[in-house]
Amino acid sequence: MEQREAIHILTFAIILIISCIISYSIGKYSNLLKPNFVCHEICNIEQLPNTDSVLLKYGLSSGYNLRYMDDFLISYDTKNRIPFWVLETISINNLIRIENNYRKNKRFTVDKYFYKPFQSTLEDYKKSGYDRGHMAAAGNYLHSKSTMMKTFLLSNIAPQVGKGFNQGIWTELENKIRNVIQSEIYKSAHILTGPLFVPKEIKYENKTIFMMEYEMLRRNVAVPTHFFKVVIFTDKSNKISYMSFVMPNAIINGTIESYYRNISDIEKLAGFRIFPKIDFFKIKNKITF
């Protein structure tokens, strides 16, 4: 009897010791579960809008490292340190400027949400010769200082040629989209924007080969060869129209209209679906400027 009790006591003691070791280990390594340590893996669980969010109305392109900013959503490429894509939705209310909400009051900022080795930095862009190009445009958020400020996080930025592109036709495209919304023909617009890496066609020994070639900023940030933008306009009767573009990341002297591309072409280049809840073959209302 005494021997059996001794065995029970010993068993209980062993279990207690093991429990203490496990508790100590969990406490010691709990920092591994904190967002600041592995935010690129853990935080994404919390970085999705609610399923009834207007952002998700037409479906979500495949992506990861999602960063939810209330008015827009970023899928971040931790290898190239630029977005895969940025999804936003705007209405005329976005374009009513509140007092003192201007671009000149904002500063580009490192997005510390992501694991530090995967962040792009201000130093990456310094003297690079490229503009810090917005994917979600700052001008789409005149109604909110905090949201406009978020567009200046570097996770929303990709290197763009300045004069002749970011400061030219790209800005013109953004302005024209806002003009369509301000006309009040449509009540809202869903905008998907992102970089593309398109291989070059090269003739070699009587053969055609395709080669991928792009610049890197300080060995960290990839410079896209092209950019795409797809816009879904919804009118007051919930009918939709759309426009879709691909533009080279270069000095452009042509017109916006010359850069229209089919959705299927963009999907092939990007490697993911564009607004997957929409059957674009059934939509006849393709908008032109």
Automatic annotation (TrEMBL):
- What's its EC? 3.1.30.-
Keyword Zinc included in the entry's annotation:
no
Alphabetical list of SUPFAM superfamilies matching this protein: His-Me finger endonucleases (SSF54060)
Report the GO molecular function annotations. Answer: metal ion binding; nucleic acid binding; RNA endonuclease activity; single-stranded DNA endodeoxyribonuclease activity
Q: Where does the record place the ENPP1-3/EXOG-like endonuclease/phosphodiesterase domain?
A: 69-281
Sorted alphabetically, the Gene Ontology BP terms of this entry are:
apoptotic DNA fragmentation
Q: Where is the DNA/RNA non-specific endonuclease/pyrophosphatase/phosphodiesterase domain?
A: 68-281
Residues at which Mg(2+) binds: 166
An example Pfam family from this entry, by short name, is: Endonuclease_NS
Q: Which residues cross the membrane?
A: 6-26
Key words of the record? Endonuclease, Hydrolase, Magnesium, Membrane, Metal-binding, Nuclease, Transmembrane, Transmembrane helix
Q: What class of enzyme is it?
A: hydrolase
Q: Name one GO cellular component term.
A: nucleus
Q: Which cofactor does it need?
A: Mg(2+)
Active site per database record: 134 (proton acceptor)
The answer on whether this UniProt entry bears the keyword Heme reads no
Entries under InterPro entries matching the protein: DNA/RNA_endonuclease_AS, DNA/RNA_non-sp_Endonuclease_sf, Endo_G_ENPP1-like_dom, ENPP1-3/EXOG-like_nuc-like, His-Me_finger_sf, Non-specific_endonuclease
Instruction: Please name the Gene3D superfamilies in this protein's record.
Output: Extracellular Endonuclease, subunit A
Recorded family membership: Belongs to the DNA/RNA non-specific endonuclease family.
Record's protein name: Endonuclease
